[in-house]
Amino acid sequence: MRACAFHSIIAALLLSATPALTQTYPTHPVSIVVGYPPGATSDLLARTVGDPLATVLGQPVVIDNRPGAGGNVGAAYVARAPGDGYTLMVGTDAMLTSNVYLYKNTPFDPAKDFAPITNAGVNIICLAVNAELSIHSVAELIDYARTHPGKLSFGTPGTASPHHLTGELLRQKAGIDIQHVPYKGGGPAVNDLLGGHIGLAFLSLSSALPQVSTGKIRILAVVEKSRYAGLPDVPTIAETVPGVEMSSWLGFFAPAATPQPIVTRLHDEMVRILKTAAVRDKLGNLGFSVTGSSSAELADDVRSGLALRGQLMKSAGIEPE
């Protein structure tokens, strides 16, 4: 009886402390952990949002780069951090939906160890072809692949990247035989596409756009659910092959135990920042389309992404390492 009463008192004290914590938050600097090196899209997003966030919170916001194992090092650190709102994270679709299938021992549970704050937006992926190919649409690409089975190779920034999985999805849905060529990043893939060593590639829009003006490549489509506002005349692949869509998103997360009032405040402040013209335009120039979703929508993105990526990686024969 006394033990039960003791535990009840402790629980009550903890509950009563939570409102005080959230009312005074923050009282010292906040860190945003990035699981990739400086210069990556996730790093640029963190820094773009971090400066105005520091202003509204009244405390410095420190960007803490912890690269390694495809983002697993940084994510594991945040998963173990105190849930007090002082350690946040930029999470990517690859880190939180693909890595559990790519690595044998993922040191966190994507669905249970984090409190989603907001899906900041998507890193637009496009399908580009070498301009010497007489292919000007997704339909023409499919016709060419069917009459030349196994002759087309598609490059991507790496195995199990959303770019790679998009190619696998197109291959399955359209029933075509195209070969995957993985590269160590988007830059080498673009270079080989420009040189004609591969016929097509799935690339981040930020990598492809600067090369369109050379006349050596063409962008056939984007892989989002809807057309990208910055290129309204470029169709989606799904307009030709329904179901071929892939979102390469980036979102903000906190450790799972973070009090809901703190998560709500961070959500509201971040979404307001993301939707300012200055931030939206700066990220848009990087090929990043701002979303600013609810926390619940980001949680759904993680759950649905885990299911889809698992199916695709199994069908592509990708084994965990």
Overview of the structural elements:
- By secondary structure, the chain is α/β, with parallel strands linked by helices.
- The protein folds into 2 domains: 32-79 and 87-122 and 248-315, 3-Layer(aba) Sandwich (D-Maltodextrin-Binding Protein, domain 2), CATH 3.40.190.150; 125-239, 3-Layer(aba) Sandwich (D-Maltodextrin-Binding Protein, domain 2), CATH 3.40.190.10.
- Helix content is 45%, strand content 19%.
- The chain has 11 helices and 11 strands.
- The strands form 2 sheets. A 6-stranded mixed beta sheet has the order 2-1-3-10-4-11. A 5-stranded mixed beta sheet has the order 7-6-8-5-9, sandwiched between helices.
- Strand 1 (30-34), helix 2 and strand 2 (61-65) form a beta-alpha-beta unit.
- The longest helix has 23 residues, at 2-24.
- It is globular, with a radius of gyration of 22 Å.
